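debug: dumping io for the single-chain case to check the tokenizer round-trip. Nothing else runs in this session.
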Amino acid sequence: MAYDNICRYLAVEYPAAFVNWLLDGDITAIQPLPTELNLEPIRSDALYLLPECNQILHLEFQTVPASKPTLPLRMLDYWVRLYRKYNCPIEQVVIFLKETTSEAVYINQFAVDKTFHSYRVVRIWEQDPSLLLTNPGLLPLAVLAHTDSPAGLLEQVAAKVDMIKEPDKQRNISACVEVLARLKFEEDLVRQFLREELMRESPLYQEILQEGVQQGIQQGIQQGIQQGEVTLALRLLTRRLGTVSPELQAQVQQLSSVQLEALGEALLDFSTTEDLIAWLQVHQ
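debug: decoded output
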């Protein structure tokens, strides 16, 4: 531990020495960053441990290719966390649900400088529906698969749903089918083949509705709290620095609650607008 402390001290006190030694250059503009890397919690869509082959299968479902952070970076982040915890091979599969012409759905790797990570991509609209029609758990995905006859595919799926004998299972699968079908088909066509009363009687559908209501309430509360934090930060900045430009105000408004709290502490040491600009460059 003493060795680490000594080296940390040297690196903090003499950044130019380390930068120019290791990068073999003559760099003078060096801005030290916080050394503590906060790890925000993330939740994957599905994880399966397969003991017989000592492997993990990780699934991510995407309706649109755009995300923040980007999907390739997220997949690398998932992989690192999973491997760190389980120390076994990990098969990652991204399943895109909604057909799009975006080139992003063909990206299956993260590549920056010397860091490379790949994963599988499944575009559900390119898949043969026949394989998905054989299992009740995959029926909802079957409606999004490739077809030259949308009405015919919906009819096939509806017939398979009707064959499910367990009432609760039938209702839940029906609800899943109807929700996903609306990503691809007009509502009138969906209702023509699927029984809406099955969906509304589904415990899963009721749970989704309730969760949506709760999320709406929580998001409203969180947005209110965050807006208050933004307002307070901007007031303090105005008192400290004078007028804050609209561009800088917009950047402050994009900060998370954690970042706003850090800004509230840091701004006590600001003396010029350049201090704020430098802080935002590091923390955004």
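debug: round-trip ok. The chain has a mean pLDDT of 80.
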